[in-house]
Write a sequence for this structure.
């Protein structure tokens, strides 16, 4: 199995593939329920973060904490990837921190483009439901060629973002990447499509992980990988909508 989601790559499950060692095993239903639970945590912390960001009386210290949540979320994500058995503890913590970060980030966008956050959330949910239906009905099958293409595209996008971030320290940015012209919009559309296709691969990876009868804690890890993709998809849709508003 191959996944472009770094939290869901082949090595994530390989060392836990001996089902005979565990009484409590990973199930598809358990992973789905934990995914719903994590989304609920993320939305709750995001709403609270939004309210803090919207309050003009909030101190600068609180604002710094809201902005720093993204860094903490990244650290917890790395811990989860390297210590999968800690997932029942680290994954809910990641959902809280990521929600705080997204709440702050979303508020900044909504201040400039009223209503854009609700649109991005609805579109993310719609894409998720459509792709889940297409996957369950086997209209879209995650073939090896599809997986290879998505892995390559995701890696290329990650490299672009890293180069753009590093270039920011010297006042240089990759042309068109964040611009609202036709080329910039086309780039965002392509990135949204790649992020969406990651969902299909993640669905397949979770299903096969359940078939391998992995240990119960891998339900949390599988839900974590899916949440990472959903957050990325939401952010890319948000950026695309912002470009369309500016154009």
């Amino acid at each position: 199995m191959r996944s472009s989601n770094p939290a869901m790559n082949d090595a994530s499950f390989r060392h836990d593939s001996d089902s005979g060692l565990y009484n409590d095993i990973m199930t598809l239903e358990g992973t789905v329920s934990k995914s719903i639970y994590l989304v609920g945590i993320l939305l709750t912390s995001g709403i609270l973060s939004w309210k803090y960001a919207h309050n003009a009386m909030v101190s600068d210290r609180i604002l710094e904490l809201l902005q720093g949540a993204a860094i903490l979320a990244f650290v917890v994500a790395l811990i989860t990837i390297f210590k999968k058995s800690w997932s029942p503890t680290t994954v809910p913590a990641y959902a809280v921190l990521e929600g705080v970060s997204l709440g702050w980030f979303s508020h900044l966008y909504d201040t400039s483009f009223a209503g854009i956050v609700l649109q991005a959330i609805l579109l993310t949910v719609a894409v998720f439901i459509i792709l889940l239906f297409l996957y369950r009905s086997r209209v879209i099958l995650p073939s090896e060629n599809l997986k290879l293409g998505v892995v390559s595209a995701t890696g290329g996008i990650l490299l672009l973002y890293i180069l753009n971030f590093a270039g920011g320290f010297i006042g240089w940015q990759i042309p068109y990447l964040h611009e609202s012209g036709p080329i910039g919009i086309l780039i965002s559309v392509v990135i949204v499509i790649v992020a969406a296709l990651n969902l299909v691969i993640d669905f397949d990876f979770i299903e096969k992980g359940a078939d391998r009868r992995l240990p119960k804690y891998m339900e949390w890890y599988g839900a974590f990988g899916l949440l990472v993709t959903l957050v990325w998809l939401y952010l890319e849709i948000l950026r695309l909508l912002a470009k369309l508003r500016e154009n």
Q: What stands out?
A: Residues 15-21 have pLDDT under 50 and may be disordered. DSSP finds eight helices and no strands in the chain. Residues 25-246 form one domain.
